[in-house]
Specification:
Radius of gyration: 44 Å
CATH architecture of the largest domain: Sandwich
Strand content: 15-25%
Largest sheet: 5 strands, antiparallel
CATH topology of the largest domain: Immunoglobulin-like
Protein name: MxaA protein
Structural class: alpha+beta
Keywords: Signal
Order of helices and strands: HEEEEEEEEEEHHHHHH
Helix content: 25-40%
CATH class of the largest domain: Mainly Beta
Oligomer: single chain
Number of domains: 2
Length: about 300
């Protein structure tokens, strides 16, 4: 016999519950939401949700709720939870677990129960009917052999996992990481390529730390000393103004900032060996010179 569509079955269930309560004005309205009633096997859990709309002023007698524990030899009520909703509505969740091991498909039923409500007009009850469902065996008693097949077929072997894709991803991640490390090492001069970008970069960082103290004479002298140290380390020996022509001959990459370098050495001579005042060479100008030298240092030929 073909069952009517689920919405009509659900409406019929609400109607049945309402009739079971007497369909009186003072009786609460109960709606049962349940999953499918078929396809269960031993150990499965079944969850029911009762939506109860009691009459105004009525309260649920919680002693009428079923208590968690074994209901019979094959069914256990694992959990009962009552959650209040808007307008006095109650949502009652019940979780059952079946332990029956049928040999063939068998129809069983979750026992019904009654809920009691107390109010100003007395006590009312709502009967929750039994809920039938079908339970299937894990394996049938026997399987007939047909067409030369064995009675019980062996399980299909699992497909081997895809190892190529994770390996390719791991390889691409490793390559990306190595390239990033190589580039970082190039910037920091870890590969011995003339220590490119290292000396003037360190000088620029030192100037940044000095800049917080303003442009006072002592700070400016310290800044000039820092830049002198960068030139000395680039040449790998002390560099004086008299040797600048030789420096530019051996380090042609610095020709673009030759005028600024010469102005730096001239201001340095005035600062350290002259009257000690430099008006046109501040820490900002020193930082700009270092910035230009950093780019040259990184990109010059080894």
């Amino acid at each position: 016999m073909r069952l009517p569509p689920w919405p009509f079955r659900k409406l019929a269930l609400v109607f049945a519950l309402a009739v079971a309560t007497g369909w009186a004005d003072a009786a609460p309205t109960v709606r049962l939401e349940a999953p499918h009633a078929y396809g269960y096997t031993v150990g499965d859990t079944i969850r029911h949700v009762l939506t109860v709309d009691p009459e105004p002023g009525d309260r649920l007698d919680e002693t009428s709720l079923p208590r968690p524990g074994p209901l019979n030899r094959w069914l256990e009520l694992r959990r009962v939870a009552v959650e209040p909703g808007p307008g006095g509505r109650l949502n009652i969740a019940l979780e059952y677990q079946t332990f029956y091991v049928p040999l063939t498909v068998k129809t069983l039923a979750i026992p019904g129960f009654s809920l009691r409500f107390t109010g100003t007009t007395g006590t009312t009850t709502a009967a929750i009917p039994a809920w039938p469902f079908s339970l299937s065996p894990v394996h049938g008693l026997a399987v007939l052999s047909e067409g030369g097949l064995d009675a019980v077929q062996a399980d299909a072997p699992p497909e081997p996992p895809d190892t190529a894709t994770p390996l390719r991803r791991a390889g691409s991640f490793a390559l990306t990481g190595l390239l990033a490390l190589a580039y970082l090492g190039h910037l920091r001069g870890f590969w011995g390529l003339g220590q490119r970008g290292r000396h003037f970069r360190e000088a620029r960082l030192a100037l940044r730390r000095l800049a917080v103290n303003g442009n006072e004479a002592a700070v400016l002298r310290a800044g000039f000393a820092v830049v002198h140290r960068a030139f000395d380390r680039t040449l790998e020996e002390p560099l004086f103004a008299e040797r600048l022509p030789e420096f530019f001959t051996d380090h042609t990459a610095y020709a673009g900032v030759r005028g600024e370098i010469e102005a730096f050495f001239q201001a340095s001579y005035t600062l350290f060996f002259g009257d000690g005042t430099v008006r046109d060479y501040s820490l900002d100008r020193l930082a700009n010179l270092c910035r230009a030298c950093v780019h040259i240092e990184r990109n010059r030929p080894a």
